Amino acid sequence: MTLIDGKAISEQIKQEIAAEVAEIVARGGKRPHLAAILVGHDGGSETYVASKVKACEVCGFKSTLIRFENDVTEAELLAKVQELNEDDDVDGFIVQLPLPDHISAQKVIEAIDYRKDVDGFHPINVGRMGIGLPCYVSATPNGILELLRRYKIETQGKKCVVLGRSNIVGKPMAILMMQKKYPGDATVTVCHSHSQNLEQECREADIIIVAMGKPNFLKADMVKEGAVVIDVGTTRVPDATRKSGFKLTGDVKFDEVAPKCSYITPVPGGVGPMTIVSLMKNTLLAGTKAIYKD
Fold it and tell me: Which is the catalytic residue, given 5, 91, 117, 119?
């Protein structure tokens, strides 16, 4: 069993990005600039945004964090999005989700200029990804592809089961795994809470990508010997023995599933760091105008 070390790979990629940025700046080019909008004080969002700001420093990017309280109106938030769209110094920006209930996340996502949408959530980027055109691919699926690539995990013709159908992970992951290039070219099945024979589908899979947000959902009896298991779940589960009062738990019952796997990602330290580094890669693409020229 090989443990997929997302933390180590992400550090490596950040150094690669930093070297490229240093070269761009040395040639008199512009330092890439990522902005992030954070609404409210959700613990998970705070942690993620802090990690993103820190990653920007390592990569040599300029970063700006814009904060709003929970009671910000939708109109105020949309006005700020428009301002960032028009700011030539900002190459890419994200609005950290989830947003408060009185704000339509979809409306906010669609208001972002797709050329600056480094989260890859805008319908134009999602659509381009769907038909295999250059675009910003959403960070978590992109990070998973990078892990498969760097560990040289075979995907062609393999049976891949994606557990979960969210717009952020499940759907894009399924589309990417079926595209005619590596990593991909797999036979993909998407399962979810209403799927029948879900256990049977999993037992037949060579690759299982779990993104359901249900701690310890995937058990040993659902996994065949030698499978590759990618765990996207990160749920805070109360744990009195820890200083924080919780521990991050994946969707895979790791201790019992791991011995059966050829490759598996841990939680934390697997997919999480790759999500952040994928955002950095998209920011570099935005800064160098590699995808959208104008």
Answer: 119
